[in-house]
Write a structure and sequence with these properties.
globular, 2 domains, Arc Repressor Mutant, subunit A, disordered N terminus, 9 helices, 70% helix, Rna Polymerase Sigma Factor, Chain: A
Length: 189
């Protein structure tokens, strides 16, 4: 299988055929699905969780759930990717519920090992990301999900709409409102 960028499939990638082969136990097909979805799922998870270790663990759990439930998946008008991202969303929500929220300040302090001038840009970037992540956590859940899928996982508006069971217009409105709120929150912090 040829490698693809976010949001596109290789022209020779017949998702339905690959999913059906994976459901029948074809390890190559399962590997192709993993290779295609892993980068996008990991980016989505890492935008929702602040710890790299947690993001890796949750992404692993997501793929275990996909493998466990793959035989029960049926094509019903939604693409396989929408099913994958619903599992991802549910796993992230479950993880967040199980974990106590760590303070952003503690995470930033842990990441700063040498505050020399060489690390000023890294510290500023880490602080900016932490500020945006903290602000995004204060968004309404629907807006937070849209932001995570659109910018974290790199899904298109159509893919995000399918993953969330919303219309494309609804996703666009949620995205616009979320970005406007984030700009205000970050500006005044």
């Amino acid at each position: 299988m040829a490698s693809t960028t976010v949001g596109e499939m290789a022209p020779d990638f017949d998702e339905r055929a690959v999913v059906e082969a994976a459901q029948q136990g074809d390890q190559g097909a399962l590997s192709a699905l993993y290779d295609h979805y892993f980068p996008r799922v990991y980016r989505y998870v890492s935008t929702r969780l602040s710890s790299t270790e947690d993001a890796e663990d949750v992404t692993t759990e997501i793929f275990l759930r996909i493998i466990e439930n793959l035989r029960s998946f049926t094509f019903r008008g939604l693409p396989f990717g929408a099913w994958v991202f619903r599992i991802a969303r549910n796993e992230v929500v479950s993880h967040v519920r199980r974990q106590k929220v760590r303070s952003t300040t503690a995470q930033l302090t842990e990441s700063i090992q040498d505050p020399s001038p060489d690390h000023v840009d890294e510290i500023a970037t880490a602080f900016t990301i932490a500020t945006i992540r903290e602000a995004a956590e204060r968004l309404p859940e629907a807006q937070r999900q849209v932001i995570a899928l659109r910018f974290g996982a790199g899904l298109s508006v159509a893919e995000t709409a399918k993953a969330l069971g919303k219309t494309e217009n609804n996703v666009k409105v949620l995205q616009h409102k979320a970005i406007a709120k984030l700009q205000l929150m970050v500006r005044y912090e």
